[in-house]
């Protein structure tokens, strides 16, 4: 039996996901592979369901951040190319080989350790070289990249290590055009250097969401979209056209319910720390969601929610499981009314970008904060 309680839940529209992928596919054009990034439980959307859905929508492969994620994808469909975006730990090497996951290599030693293990296990490992053009996280410096690729190429004669690709990661594509162009230039030089040596690789890539939106003339032959796949545009200094925003629809809505309504008199205080005091008579509603579901406590006193198509300001501190909102203007509000924390209701919409601003963070963190207590309910696509 499966049981969940619909107090705070996420509705995930699989059709939106399909459309977003179709738009990305159109934007990057023929001949460019799309590795759907599904790390962190597919950005909180539920890895297993999202991966199986994307397998039917034209994704060419998947990007993950750990091997449990790779394992979950393998269970849903075998044979899909999976790229592990982080560097493997010692214990992960064996599992990467066993699950046939492509791994990221930043230095020769890593490749040697993989080759040794692969020979021991008599199973080949596929690798991609990472170049650090400005992210400063993983990767080899561009000036040493060609040398590393050549050394790894030599290991291919063993048949247990195969070089499948080369990539870099942009650090500020939504903010800094000059910095980004320099990163792409450094990477292009490496790729051209390899061409001169007659080294051509299956997967050559630089762009995640922001790169796809802002640098679409420099996509090489593969892209790694995360956020835009889920319908959210990364916002920064660089301006995105409204036209593009219209093509992407957020797949996730976050909802909860009204559990209690009462009138309060002037002077009455609300929630922990009594940070809010009523200045007039008000009608307030208690909701069935809090920071324990992943709705950030830093939104206290700043945000609003939607009830009966109206904006209702959050009063006082958000608590672990409940919060209190002002429903004075919602004459017909009733217990069990549906309340939207993220998403649309009537003409109103609260975007995840807006919620992230209230919480002083980024949409990625809002999505990955939604925890196991929040059931994911799938609509559209094969779920309907
Ligand atoms: C997370 C990640 C992505 C996806 O990034 P988005 O901005 O969500 O599109 C792509 N590549 C790497 C290396 C990542 O770590």
Describe the structure.
With 384 residues, the protein is α/β, with parallel strands linked by helices. The chain has two domains: 14-237, TIM Barrel (Alpha-Beta Barrel); 252-350, Beta Barrel (Lyase, Ornithine Decarboxylase, Chain A, domain 1). 32% of the residues lie in helices and 24% in strands. The strands form four sheets. A six-stranded antiparallel barrel has the order 10-13-16-15-14-17. A four-stranded parallel beta sheet has the order 4-3-2-9. The two termini are 20 Å apart. The protein binds pyridoxal-5'-phosphate. The site of pyridoxal-5'-phosphate (PLP) has 12 residues, from loops.
Mean pLDDT: 96
Shape: elongated
The amount of helix comes to 25-40%
Ions, cofactors and other ligands present here are:
pyridoxal-5'-phosphate
Tally of DSSP β-strands:
19
Q: Radius of gyration, Cα only, in angstroms?
A: 24 Å
Q: What is the strand arrangement across the widest sheet?
A: 10-13-16-15-14-17
What's the CATH topology label of the largest domain? Answer: TIM Barrel
Total helical segments: 12
Q: How many separate domains make up the residues?
A: 2
> Would you identify the CATH H-level superfamily of the largest domain?
Alanine racemase
- Share of residues in strands: 15-25%
Distance between the termini: 20 Å
Just give the CATH class of the largest domain: Alpha Beta
Largest sheet: 6 strands, antiparallel, barrel
Give start-end ranges of low-pLDDT stretches: none
Return the structural class. alpha/beta
